[in-house]
Records
---
Amino acid sequence: MRDRPSDTGVLAKVYARSLEVILAGQAASGAYPACPAYPVYRYSWLRDGSFIAESMSRVGQADSAAAFHDWCAAVITAREDRIGSLLRAADAGETIPRSAFLPTRYRLDGTDADTSDEQWWDFQLDGYGMWLWTVGEHARRHQSDPRRWQKAVVLTVRYLARFWDRPCYDWWEEHPEERHTSTLAAIHAGLRSALRLGLLDTELARTCSTVCDQIQQVVQREGIAEGHLTKWLGGRAVDASLIACLTPFALVPAEGDIAESTLRAVEETIAHGGVHRYAADTFYGGGEWPLLAALLGWHYARIGSREKAWRQLHWVADQADARGDLPEQVPDHLLHPEYRLQWIQKWGPVASPLLWSHAMFLILADELGFTGEAPGSSPEPTPHPSTTDTPLRGESQ
């Protein structure tokens, strides 16, 4: 980590480069690749893509965001029969293998990724919840008609409402045997967003609302230890993805007791300027992730800790290379350096530029009112409403 903060010129350079990287990387189909320069990331994830679309929606690139939503809607509606088969199998009590569920990543043309040459960890639910969430944010922000995505929204709600409690891979494509709190938060936020869009019939809306209640109940019972949210239900570990349970997904109120304890646990274990994924992380040695530093800054901004939020924005900008490209992670403070070389030998240098990293920089910049000019000349951002109205039971208001 550099020992000096970025100046305004560096912030402006990274801001401009972030726009350039994302817009240049977006495929004609509307899909966002995770990283065009990194072979195993030349696909589109709904998780990465949802945050990338959110950044574009915020910074005046609404057409780019809408094109991604069109692509997602086409991907999901093309799998209507597959979703129907999964629902029927579940209703019949059949055992469903992970390989049968919807993929977590797709080729840029919307077809399933080829897994014959490389194994991938494909059953993940978080991205589908995130897509519903960001569609709602985009429609609200731009007062656009969401009916163009209605069929896909309905299919996604039916899919998540039936399978939300299945163990699956987490944000980091690990631990498929667990139910992950950040995954449940993404699903909860997505289903709440779908309800607000007004695209569901009465029965599906009722089911959607019931599942939201069930998610909060199970997190209350099994997803809290020592007062803070945990990496997965029944566990005790802390993970940086838990920040998203506070901001932006608001599974708990951002300034309530559980949120404060969760933030403190993250700060004390895996955050010190940059943010690690979790304490036992060995991927490329377990470095600090710019996108997670920006996520932490986003939460700081939401709770009014603007000085801390600005420090996170500066830290992220300081991780850019000479071109302004942001990587997936940086090696300045590795948790387990003995593992770094084996990943370089397997997949090459750390992915860069990572579109998700650039997107999170833009989101935090927008949250702080920074638009590529001197911070003092930027207006205060319009406050964003909370994305939940059902705090966990016992949560202070």
---
Amino acid sequence: MQNFIPTRRAAMALILAGTALTGATGQAVAQDITLGALRLTSHSPTYIALERGYFEDEGLNVELAFFESSAAMAVGVAGGDLDYGVTSISGGLMNLAQKGAVKVIGGALAEDPDVQGHVILASNAAFEDGVTEPAQLAGRSFGVTTAGSSFHYMLSRIAEGEGFDIADVQMKPLQKVGAIIGALSSGQVDGWAIQPSIGKRLVEEGAAHKIGDLSDYAPDYQVTAVFTSTGTAEGEREQTEAFLRALSHGVADYNAAFVDGTADEAEVTELTEIVHQYVSTDVDDARFAKDMAEGSMRINEGLSLSTSSLQSQLDWMQDEGLVSGDITLEMLVDPSYVETN
């Protein structure tokens, strides 16, 4: 876990014995919460909600804790270092749910056949050697963070769709997205699947070739979810509902600006600038605006959750022996907070 980054808008909360007090004006002091985040465009609603004061409006004083992997964030929530997290479904998260430590309470990033989703890439060396479509990933190497990660699951969907055994692909666990980017760009791994905001940039910069779309293999994939500790889900309902309302407001702004195209130009510019404070800060403004305009995936309105996709992911991980066969969807999900399907 890296250092906490406090919101610009946050006021200091007064805490006594873990309970928020009221200030001299009689108004309730904001409740402190810590939220895990990744420096990816898929976390844009978090930054929008933060900078536009949506959390503050709900009486929440939010601090961000930045991570470089989904697994570490899940451990942070389970261990009490974080109140909430937004990241991909992983075997690690499922194992923590079996222990009664965490609950998924909402959905976030999702594949939508009508919107550009994850792109399947080949390194330049692999492409020149004949890897020009996903079926040709058999016998090659593929970048993942860890076994049981979203990247591992995406590879499984490609393998199943193309009729080859996933065991025929050499997975290279590189722990961090940045490390996979470096390995793909230098030809140390042959293939990868990643959000279009990153994938399209790699292609346009000549660092990789696009060879397919994940939506052809997993059109209803619930990529990321919102989760919290079981104690918070069960014992802090008012706070959790306030958190989800604020984040949902950020989702609505994000989708309007970058997915549905219903926001005006000034709104798009403002939101792009907000996100760029946190994501790809080394990329120039024009390039980042292009990434947001052309590479933003849909995030579920109202943070609705595809439990059918989660069940498919759980079934696969159990079939692969990555998680216990005793884990159930009920252990993983608290369906009482958002719409599910």
